[in-house]
């Protein structure tokens, strides 16, 4: 990778913008793609984003860009039950868990073992241990992050997220406010409610039945 002219951070921003369309941009998730092909593919995809955005219908969250949400949410309808200081969260979370759960970061695509795991059980919040998702609603989306089509009732909050120049729906743990990822609609994966909760695996702890 010594011939890369873009920083790892810049490459990863492109991953965030494109990876939520797995059928079109699956090549971007290949870990050993050549730098030249990577840059040309990203550039071609960037030119197609405005057209795809224009085709989206009102009321549907745009299925581009996955997780990072640097700006705070304006939705204050539900305050988390578990509240800790920053130092208290640092004491109970790993540095990567803190970055994702408390700073709304994003783990790298394909890095979570939960992405390809389909054992029976329940996925809990890594911050407060609240149950969030069951294995019965998990499916393989090909996006590089664990995907679910529904939650444990009342476990997850939704917030409007207008970062990255678009409107998306961020999902957070109802119990502690930890950042989970984003939810997308209308992608036709064939699940009962046509939603995809695209969740950082680092935000979860799995407990087998």
From TrEMBL:
GO MF annotations in UniProt: metal ion binding; peptide-methionine (R)-S-oxide reductase activity
Cofactor: Zn(2+)
Residue stretches making up the MsrB domain: 86-209
Catalytic activity: L-methionyl-[protein] + [thioredoxin]-disulfide + H2O = L-methionyl-(R)-S-oxide-[protein] + [thioredoxin]-dithiol
Enzyme Commission number(s) of this protein: 1.8.4.12
Biological processes annotated in GO: protein repair; response to oxidative stress
Cofactor note: Binds 1 zinc ion per subunit.
Name recorded for this polypeptide: Peptide-methionine (R)-S-oxide reductase
Organism: Cryptococcus wingfieldii CBS 7118
Species lineage: Eukaryota, Fungi, Dikarya, Basidiomycota, Agaricomycotina
């Amino acid at each position: 990778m010594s011939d890369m002219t873009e920083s790892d951070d810049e490459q990863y921003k492109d991953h965030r913008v494109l990876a939520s369309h797995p059928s079109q941009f699956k090549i971007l998730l290949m870990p050993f793609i050549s730098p030249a092909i990577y840059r040309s593919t990203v550039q071609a995809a960037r030119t197609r984003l405005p057209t795809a955005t224009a085709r989206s219908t009102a009321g549907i969250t745009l299925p581009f860009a996955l997780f990072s949400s640097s700006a705070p949410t304006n939705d204050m309808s539900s305050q988390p039950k578990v509240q800790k200081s920053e130092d208290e969260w640092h004491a109970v979370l790993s540095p990567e868990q803190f970055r994702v759960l408390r700073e709304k970061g994003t783990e790298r695509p394909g890095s979570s073992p939960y992405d390809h795991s389909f054992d029976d059980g329940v996925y809990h919040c890594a911050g407060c241990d609240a149950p969030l998702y069951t294995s019965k609603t998990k499916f393989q989306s090909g996006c590089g992050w664990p995907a679910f089509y529904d939650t444990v009732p009342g476990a997850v909050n939704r917030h409007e997220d207008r970062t990255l120049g678009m409107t998306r729906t961020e999902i957070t743990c109802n119990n502690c406010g930890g950042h989970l990822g984003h939810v997308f609609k209308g992608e036709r994966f064939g699940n009962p409610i046509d939603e995809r909760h695209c969740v950082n695996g680092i935000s979860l702890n799995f407990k087998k039945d």
